Amino acid sequence: MSGRIPREFIDELLVRVDIVDLIDSHVPLKKTGANYVARCPFHTEKTPSFTVSRSKQFFHCFGCGASGNAISFLMDFSHLDFVEAVEDLAVFAGIDVPRESVGYQVGPKKDDLNSLYVVMEQVAAFYIEQLRVSPKAVDYLKARGVKGKIARDFMLGYAPDKWGALAERFSQKLLIEAGLLVTKDDGQVYDRFRGRIMFPIRDKRARIIGFGGRVLDDSLPKYLNSPETSLFYKGKEVYGLYELLEKNSKPQRILIVEGYMDVIALAQFGIHYAVAALGTAASQAHLDLLFRFSSELVFCFDGDRAGREAAWRAMESAFSSLKAGRSCRIMLLPQSHDPDSLVREEGVDKFTERVQTAQALSDYFFEHVSEGLNLFEMEGRAQLISKAKPYLEKLPEGVFREMMFARLKELSGLVTLNVLDNVVTVDSSPKRQHQREHNRLSSARVAIALLLQNPRLADIVEQKDIDWSGLEFRGIELFKSILQVILDKKSVNTAVLIEYYRNTAEEKSIKALALLDLFVSDDKIEAVFGDALNGLLKQGREAGIAKLQAKAQSRGLDSQEQETLVRMLVNK
Q: Percent of the chain having pLDDT more than 70?
């Protein structure tokens, strides 16, 4: 793998790129007041609710809630992971991405990776040529009902049944690095894939990163995949995703099937939203990848025992990926059927109906854990709790988790008891939350929001030479954290700060404060911030003094606390 991208480079990139120019190159923007607006590219709307701020280097949709900096936009708009988005942003800025070495393992250089991508394309073209001149391979695909157009769309090919078909034509060094040649103990090499229908595996950028091969008969192994290489990590890739996104970049749902031929067979019938895990069970990484493109995933498994066991394993992976706005369904096929045979027997409409009405993951879960238990008896209900609770605790915090615990309470007859104390009922409505924050944190919210939106204000804080010991106000740790980040970094704007808090507990608060419009004109920002900071420090001192005085009366103070209290009373 290549090394990490230095944090300093990401900061510099976010300072150098103007988010307005970036987004305007993808979604035409219209200037309205100080900001720019457009119809949101992430959901369907008739009137623009998508706004971009040049001063904050931040975008936000008031319709669907999408928000973030330039990197976040590319991740959402182009369905990229973080590293891919940084690379694309660097291309937009016209600069190269540096890499840090990790330990003693230095990954392949960019030029080396490009060479691997080139040889993979060349090998795929060779396999396609071989398919055309192999009657038995063509006959096999015809027998499976695969038409020429689908074969071209998926770049199907054939690996001739020879030990050195590739080694004779391409660089052996590159073929070994790409996993296409196997090296024997004596140093001799031979083709990994022989006598198989070849399925190129493409990433989201259409680059071939690996291959899958299927035998033409019933010999074993039926399927063979590329080994993991610097291009290919089977635990993070799925087959057919590139082809799916070519047909529909925003599918309503994605169907996860078990094999390459299932994906191709369904595509034959116009069902272009199927993908397959690459010879392994669907992992959380697979699901997180697919959830970037659709909010609904449907697992499709054979109805036999192996299929049911696979469904349960998939459910376990799905639990860690589920959060608000995401859903999973389980679709078990009739005995002795796979997707190919079932769609041919029942037709597209009936098969599609099965997909749309597949069992919700929540229902499947409780049906599975309740199986064989007598819920009319206390012992059965106790067993249900002990079986279900470990899984439910894996769910991310949110409404779905609370509802699943509520369902467990209902099934176990503990609706009115506190045995299951995992569900905490809170009034988290936006109106109530806004009221709470406005009442308790007005000074803090103003000060933190202004500092986040205008990092230059850190100079005002520094000039005050504040003694932070003993101060007590809600939000003090976040304020101090943002201040320290600003002081530590060479160049910083709001986009850099948002990036710093990505995937942290504070990310949601940071985005909300970055979005907060305080309606302060540019020439008044320093004055308003100064007033808010003074009010905040006064509030913090008073709260700190009250806390120390209360402790002095109840338990007493140590020498350091006594010194802090005296100093705060003097400064007051």
A: 89
CA distance 11 to 21: 18
Bridge partners of 296, per DSSP, are 327
Q: DSSP for 321-364, please give it.
A: T--TT-EEEEEEPPTT--HHHHHHHH-HHHHHHHHHTPEEHHHH
User: Distance (Å, rounded) from C-alpha 300 to C-alpha 277?
Assistant: 12
Strand partners, 197: 158, 214
Beta-carbon contacts of residue 302 (< 8 Å; ≥ 6 apart): 258, 332, 333, 337, 338
Q: How confident is the model at residue 442 (pLDDT cuts 50, 70, 90)?
A: low
Task: Give dist(CA 272, CA 267) in Å, integer.
Answer: 5
Q: Write down the pLDDT at residue 10.
A: 93
Are 389 and 348 spatial neighbours (Cβ–Cβ below 8 Å)? no
Q: Are 131 and 25 in a shared domain? A: no
The pair phi, psi for residue 474, each rounded to 5°, is -70, 125
pLDDT of residue 3: 63
Examine residue 103 and state whether it is found in any structural domain, yes or no: no
Query: Rounded to whole angstroms, how far apart are CA atoms 390 and 388?
Result: 6
Count helices and strands in the chain by DSSP H and E runs: 24, 17
Does a structural domain hold residue 276?
yes
Range of the domain at 418: 379-425
DSSP state of 523: G
In the three-class reduction of DSSP (H, G, I as helix; E, B as strand; rest coil), residue 157 is classed as strand
- CA dist 385 and 393 (Å) reads 12
Of 459, 514, 458, the closest CA to residue 481 belongs to 458
Long-range pairs, 422-427, Cβ under 8 A, ≥24: 422/389, 422/392, 422/393
Indicate if the pLDDT at residue 501 is higher than 90. Answer: yes
Beta bridge partners of 38: 50
Which two tokens mark 207?
């680059």
The sign one gets for the Cα dihedral 63, 68, 70, 74 is: negative
Q: Considering Cα of 236, then 239, then 243, then 247, what sign does the dihedral take?
A: negative
Give backbone dihedrals phi and psi of 200, rounded to 5 degrees, phi first: -65, 135
Q: What is the pLDDT of residue 523?
A: 86
Cβ neighbours around 421 below 10 Å, total? 8
Rounded CA-CA distance 444/450 in Å is: 10
What is the share, in percent, of the chain residues with pLDDT greater than 90? 46
Q: Please give the residue that has the higher pLDDT: either 454 or 444.
A: 454
């392994």: which residue's tokens?
A: 280
Q: How far apart are CA 192 and CA 21, in angstroms?
A: 47
What pLDDT is attached to residue 522?
A: 85
Residue 100 lies in a domain: no
Is residue 439 located within the same domain as residue 559?
Answer: yes
Contacts of 350 (CB under 8 A, 6+ apart): none
Q: What gap in Å lies between CA 203 and CA 77, rounded to an integer?
A: 16
Task: In whole angstroms, give the CA distance from residue 15 to residue 493.
Answer: 7
254 closest CA partner among 243, 218, 265, 198: 243
Q: Which residues contact 306 (CB under 8 A, 6 or more apart)?
A: none
Q: What is the pLDDT of residue 439?
A: 41
Same domain, 20 and 127: no
Residue 279 near residue 225 (C-beta atoms within 8 A): yes
257 with 333, same domain?
yes
